[in-house]
Amino acid sequence: MTRAQVYQRLNQVFREILDDDSIELKDETVADDVDGWDSFEHINLVVGVEEEFGFKIPMGKVVTMKNVGEMVDLILELGK
Amino acid sequence: MTITSFWFLVLISLGAGVYYLLPKAWQWVELLLLSLIFYYYAAESWTILYLAVSTLTVYGAALAICRLRGTQKQRLCLWVLLLAITVNLVVWFVVKGKGLWGFFAAKLYDSTGLAAAQSLLGLELLAALGMGYYTLQLLGYLIDCYWENVEPQKNPLKLFLFAVYFPQLTTGPISRYAQLECLFEKHKLQYRNLAFGAQRILWGFFKKIVLAERVGILVAAIQQNPQSYTGFYSWIALFMYPLQMYADFSGCMDIVLGVSELFDIHLTENFKNPFFSRTSQEFWQRWHITLGAWAKDYVLYPLLKSKRMVRFGKFTKKKFGRKTGKFLVNAAAMFVLWMVMGIWHGGLRYIVGVSLWYWIILMLGELLSPWFVKLTAALHMKTDSFSWHLFQSVRTYLIYAIGASFFSLGISRSLALLKDAWNVLWVEGSANPWIFFDQSILQLGVTYGDLNLILLAVLLLVIVACLREKYTYARIWIEQQSFLFRWMIWIALFLLVLVYGKYGPGYSAAEFIYQGF
Predict the structure, then answer these.
(1) Cβ distance B63 to B152 under 8 Å?
(2) Which of A36, A15, A34 minimizes the C-alpha distance to B366?
(3) What is the pLDDT of residues B474-486, one digit of tens each?
């Protein structure tokens, strides 16, 4: 899976959960940059990512991920 | 010894001097020694055993989890974690939770006359200093070890220092282990740390002994004599208590963070101009930040991500639709979160005043905000204007003031105060606006000078808050000014504290409001 492919699928997950088709994620995107990405939606997004990619994101990573770039790194690592 | 006492200032001055003269590998040992000295003089010394027990259980559990991981007994990791958490929470609850279990023991005694319940009520357990704070810190560390976010600390004395680190024992902040690992590093003397630390301590003293102590006199006089002080006095108590609380708690944090800065240890901020918040949700992201962040990471997230909660979310979405489903999940999770925060405060009044009140407010906010958005759009209101921001901030302040009155007075006395304040608006003959113009307020134990000082201090607080919004810290703006001007500011502040601070022989500054947790 390439980084671009991860982004494509990740954008879909975010758009669907946050109900916003204009979302375009980048490495440096953080919660404050996306309307509606609050503490609750953060977990909905994590669960959405888990279902999309078919693996569990460890709880420790859920609280320490700083931006979308780190999320993508993690997906690539877990998907190996 | 309190952190506003003369001897504390002597301790930190000498301590900071020695700190930078010592071989750097020994600096953390000195911090441990300073913490033990502070503890000895600030609390009943034997209560440090509570800290030792908590540290040892958490230390052992973290190492055990680390050893078990990757072996055939890996499943035991979770049990070790749960056991250590339970032991620490039970100790904390028995010692600090009398406000809660005492309530149920009293009910039990009233209804059954059980002798055991009576003897429970007579139990007076002495708590350790900062028990609510260090317990959360240690549990956070343990969970971080379990989540593999930090490496377990091999030296029990270093972990003990993490728990007992003296500046934060009084009222927090609740630090994370990863942030405080710098305690064990080597620190070089830097002029900026000493200057910024001293400045922040001075500002904290100003808030506490010039402002909070004066406002406290006003508020206490009204709260203690509700029959004599009615009408607009109730409004004064209602509106001034949040100010007292802020000056007291954030003043303490300024002293704590400033002291720590002297040792090149930069603690997490606990306040970020909370009264500038537009909503109650934002307020709690700016007030007692470290408690909210702790509860979010270690309670809310694991709860929301648990299998049952995810299943519950799917069920509610299917049954009630996407929006209502999400709302129900949020409401359930928020209820648990706020209950945890209320229980941490340790009494029924906190559960009602802090938790239930805010849970209702936040849920109402979530339900009604789409309607408000439509309403303001229909009325062509400029929601980005200063006046709208001011309206929102005053509304948020009032909501906090009501919660804070529960916090301060308990449920029945607070309801009486709120009823009296309400009567001013609607019951004929209840309003007494002349108290603001004749000398009535002076009967509350303050002078004209005190009132003027309160006004001046509030004005300074607003200026500093505005500078903080723009420059992160007002000190950074001051640092950019000319030598003469910035020294004038600090000397003036020093003189204000020296001349107008409530201290000295015969006067004992009240304990910090948040010291009891």
Answers:
(1) yes
(2) A36
(3) 999 999 999 999 9
Q: Are B240 and B215 in contact (CB under 8 A)?
A: yes
DSSP type of residue B129:
T
Over residues B228-255, the pLDDT tens digits come to 899 999 999 999 999 999 999 999 999 9
pTM of the predicted protein model: 0.91
* Cβ distance of B301 and A43 shorter than 8 Å: yes
Confidence (pLDDT) at B154: 96
Can you give the pLDDT at residue B112? 83
Pull the structure tokens for residue B282.
Answer: 């934002």
CA–CA distance, B101 with B348 (Å, rounded to integer)? 9
- With cut-offs at 50, 70 and 90, classify the pLDDT of residue A5: very high
> Residue A62: closest CA among chain B residues belongs to which residue?
B301
B-facing residues of A in 37-56 (CB < 8 A) are 39-40, 42-44, 46-47
DSSP sequence for B313-334: HHHHHHHH-HHHHHHHHHHHHH
Contact: B301, A58; criterion CB under 8 Å: no
For residue A55, the distance in angstroms to the closest alpha carbon of chain B comes to: 14
Q: What is the CATH number of the domain that holds A12?
A: 1.10.1200.10
Q: Kindly report the nearest CA distance between residue B349 and chain A, in angstroms.
A: 27
Tell me the ipTM for this assembly. Answer: 0.90
Residue B109 is predicted with a pLDDT of: 83
Q: Domain count for chain A, please give it.
A: 1
pLDDT computed for residue B100 by the predictor: 81
CA distance B377 to B318: 32
Distance of CA B297 to the CA centre of its chain: 17
Cβ within 8 Å, pair B304-A40: yes
Tell me which chain B residues have a C-beta less than 8 angstroms from the C-beta of A74.
Answer: none
Contact state of A58 with B148 under an 8 Å Cβ cutoff: yes
CA distance B506 to A55: 66
Whole-angstrom CA distances from B416 to B88, B421, B443 are 38, 9, 22
Of A19, A44, A60, the CB nearest to B149: A60
Residue B271 CA, distance from chain mean position: 9
CB < 8 Å to B148, chain A: 58, 60
Closest CB to B147: pick one of A43, A46, A60: A60
User: How far is C-alpha B79 from the geometric centre of its chain's CA atoms?
Assistant: 31
Cα A59 from chain centre? 14
A59 touches chain B (CB under 8 A): yes
Ordered alpha helix ranges (H), B206-306: 213-224, 232-262, 280-286, 289-295, 301-305
Closest to B207 measured CA to CA, from B267, B159, B251? B251
Tell me which residue range forms the domain holding A28.
3-78
Q: What is the pLDDT of residue B505?
A: 62
In angstroms, rounded to a whole number, what is the distance separating the alpha carbons of residues B487 and B498? 16
Enumerate the residues of chain B whose CB falls inside 8 A of the CB of residue A40: 304, 326, 329-330, 333
